[in-house]
């Protein structure tokens, strides 16, 4: 093969492909699809009937940056609690749309507690378990009728783990009659896609506008998810919710979700995402929100909080100080971001660098808005600081962390403060 040959490549030279144009869906005050920025959502793991704990967790997820929060609605008590949760959140100044997650008995719960139907921002319906046999159509219709009555959007969310078995059996029978039958995996992927699309078509027939429908078709395998959503995106213009279901715990869940969603987002597919992490013992539920934000931000699709470029360390950096400083800086700017979002708009675009030695430290620091190059093993005990490519000061001694954080705060004030932006202080 000629080593000078140029290999064909479908990936653009820089940046993701243009977003796939989908219908715009209004969920409370949040727009999903229609060219709007990709929306981050999350889900509580409290007993929804416990109003206090659920309200507290929704607030925590919202403060972390979740723009939509889903809650389980599985009992009459949970359904009755939803309006109270929404009211308590409103009293706290939190108006995040609450999504009701329904399985098996949603038609009964909304009939018993219509105030729940009215209070929710969106309903999530699983076509694989909304009903079985002759009851399926009527129970699905009941949920759609509530959505129409209260002008609510609906996510029709098919899932690999609760696939519509009747549809799967039908497609298996059809496949057996093909001249060249598909493999079983392809048939099941088709069943998942058809479950979502056929249910959406039925909802439209019942009177629900297509502009109030979001689709999802979740699986737990990376390659399967990519294949399913590519096909789903090619067959319609519904807004799509992305997520790798049951992604797993810790780094496995983060890596798997990022691998799958990263490919789809790069191809312009996806209007809202959730990272379905299994929380590690003692870990905050809001970590799934942070991972979703960081995925979107590192891909250049949105900006949520200043991101820190940090040295990984090597034999030149036997001190752990640069690691501790990077953590301190990241935690500081994330803690300040809720305030900065209001008082210093644009601060989320700030770039920071914490580097550990002279090899890449000065160069990487110059690329950031603010960067610090710490001394490596055997280097002079000084840390030059760079702002917008220019060296401004050299820090020394035991207070480097505090002084560098103060420099960051000062930079944010000068560049992003209301006065700096030309308005009144």
Automatic annotation (TrEMBL):
InterPro entries: Dihydropteroate_synth-like_sf, IspG_bac, IspG_bac-typ, IspG_C, IspG_TIM, NO2/SO3_Rdtase_4Fe4S_sf
Cofactor note (record): Binds 1 [4Fe-4S] cluster.
Pathway: Isoprenoid biosynthesis; isopentenyl diphosphate biosynthesis via DXP pathway; isopentenyl diphosphate from 1-deoxy-D-xylulose 5-phosphate: step 5/6
EC number: 1.17.7.3
Pfam families per UniProt: GcpE, GcpE_C
Entry keywords, A to Z: 4Fe-4S, Iron, Iron-sulfur, Isoprene biosynthesis, Metal-binding, Oxidoreductase
Residues reported in the UniProt entry to bind [4Fe-4S] cluster: 311, 314, 357, 364
HAMAP family: IspG
Designated name of the protein: 4-hydroxy-3-methylbut-2-en-1-yl diphosphate synthase (flavodoxin)
Name of the encoding gene: ispG
């Amino acid at each position: 093969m000629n080593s000078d040959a140029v290999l064909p490549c479908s990936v653009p030279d820089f940046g993701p492909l243009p977003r796939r144009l989908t219908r715009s869906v209004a969920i409370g005050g949040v727009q999903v699809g229609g060219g709007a920025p990709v929306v981050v959502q999350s889900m509580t793991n409290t007993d929804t009937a416990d109003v206090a704990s659920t309200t507290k967790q929704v607030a925590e997820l919202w403060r972390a940056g979740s723009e939509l929060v889903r809650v389980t609605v599985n009992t009459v008590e949970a359904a009755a609690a939803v309006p109270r949760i929404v009211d308590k959140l409103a009293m706290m100044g939190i108006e995040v749309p609450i999504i009701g997650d329904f399985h098996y008995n949603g038609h009964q719960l909304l009939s018993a507690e219509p105030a729940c139907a009215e209070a929710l921002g969106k309903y999530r319906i699983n076509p694989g378990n909304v009903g079985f046999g002759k009851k399926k159509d009527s129970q699905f219709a009941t949920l759609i009728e509530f959505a129409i009555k209260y002008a609510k959007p609906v996510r029709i969310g098919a899932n690999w783990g609760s696939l519509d078995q009747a549809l799967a059996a039908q497609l298996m029978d059809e496949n057996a009659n093909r001249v060249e039958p598909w493999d079983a995996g392809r048939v099941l992927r088709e069943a998942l896609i058809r479950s979502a699309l056929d249910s959406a078509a039925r909802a439209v027939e019942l009177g629900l506008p297509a502009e109030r429908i979001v689709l999802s078709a979740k699986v737990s395998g990376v390659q399967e998810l990519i294949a399913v959503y590519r096909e789903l995106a090619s067959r319609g213009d519904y807004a799509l919710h992305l997520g790798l279901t049951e992604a797993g715990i810790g780094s496995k869940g983060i890596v798997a979700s990022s691998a799958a969603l990263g490919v789809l987002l790069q191809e312009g597919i996806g209007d809202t995402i959730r990272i379905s992490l299994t929380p590690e013992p003692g870990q905050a539920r809001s970590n799934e929100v942070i991972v979703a934000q960081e995925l979107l931000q590192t891909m250049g699709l949105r900006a949520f909080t200043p991101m820190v470029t940090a040295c990984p360390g090597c034999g030149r950096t036997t001190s752990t100080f640069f690691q501790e400083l990077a953590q301190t800086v990241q935690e500081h700017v994330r803690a300040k971001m809720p305030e900065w979002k209001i008082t210093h708009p644009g601060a989320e675009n700030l770039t920071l660098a914490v580097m550990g030695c002279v090899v890449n430290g000065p160069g990487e620091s110059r690329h950031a808005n603010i960067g610090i190059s710490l001394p490596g093993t055997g280097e002079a005990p000084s840390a030059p600081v760079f702002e917008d490519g220019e060296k401004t000061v050299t820090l020394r001694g035991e207070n480097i962390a505090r002084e560098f954080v103060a420099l960051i705060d000062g930079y944010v004030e000068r560049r992003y403060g209301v006065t700096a932006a030309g308005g009144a202080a």
